[in-house]
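hi! just following up on the protien thing from before. the input was this:
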Amino acid sequence: MKRLYEPGQLVETTVVAVTGDTVFIDLGLKSEGFVEAADFKDENGNVTVKEGDKVKVYFVGGKNEELHFTTKIAGSKTKGDNSAFENAFKNGIPVEGTVKAEIKGGFEVMLGTTRAFCPYSQMGYRQRKEPAEYVGQHLSFKISEFKNDGKNIVVSNRAILEEQANAEKAVLAEKFTVGMTVTGTVKSIESYGAFIDIDGFQALLPVSEISRNRVTSVADVLKVGQEVTAKIIKADWNKERVSLSTKELEADPWDAVAEKFNVGDKVEGKISRIADFGVFVALADGIDGLVHVSKLNVERNTNLKKVFNAGDVLPVIIEKIDTEAKRISLSTIVSNEEQDNAYEYMSSHKDDDDGMSYNPFAALLKK
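and the predicted 3d structure came back as:
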């Protein structure tokens, strides 16, 4: 009688019952198939499937009406029948094996009683361990080569881990999309930003996206372990790059600029940044204006960083407000003392040019 299933054959079916150490599946026959519950247990020992769940399993073998399936082919279940491994090779079915020893170029892996070879490059994935740490471990593999009726088998643990990572990435890509708000934990802090752990995935919160106020040091505003709520602003799941912004969740201070400032206002602000082309002055939280170098009382080609210091108070006058471009143009204003001195000087020379407006060059010629 022809067998209904071949060893290693993939079957997509439904769980009909979970009882003790056994998961029963629907085969559309008078009898049911079964899978050991251990195949579906997570790292905490909990069975992760329930009645009605769709599952993918592989046929191991059976007698009479008992048909045994598994989520991966274990060497101990093949009883020396390498046809199951050949089927696994042809159909990309995972196999289980134990790393027996480190040998030249990689590892000797036992698939039950069948020997296989796993190259160094195919053991582990992102976080590689020292070779000795793999010896003795029971792991899952994909068969990448099957030759000489199973006498030469090459396996890859990396292929399994890559598939798992891609599956997890697909779930995250569907769950987390651009524009949504997420909550995570600060995993690490760098000079250019902080990495935020979101369901096991690390997204980057750039320093420029932390706050609408200028942040010079990430460590000043964030700590490892701190909970952060942010908005996803970019997501490239193929490259596994996701960017966040906490700044986007803050009220935009530019929305109220028209209520706070007007052209011609004289205000005092602190210098927030010094550039070659001018000095930026903080007028309010998140609002900076620029005093262009041409508006500063300095000689041409002056190194502004030698004249001005961040944090210094600078009296300025607002010349132009562009709310759409989020730019405010400023110019420096003369202090009261300078204004008084100038007035006194002008008054003392008011007759130097016969009633005309004071001309310093004309005054010099008269001397």
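Residues 157-175 form the longest helix (19 residues).
The CA atoms of residues 5 and 210 lie 58 Å apart.
cheers
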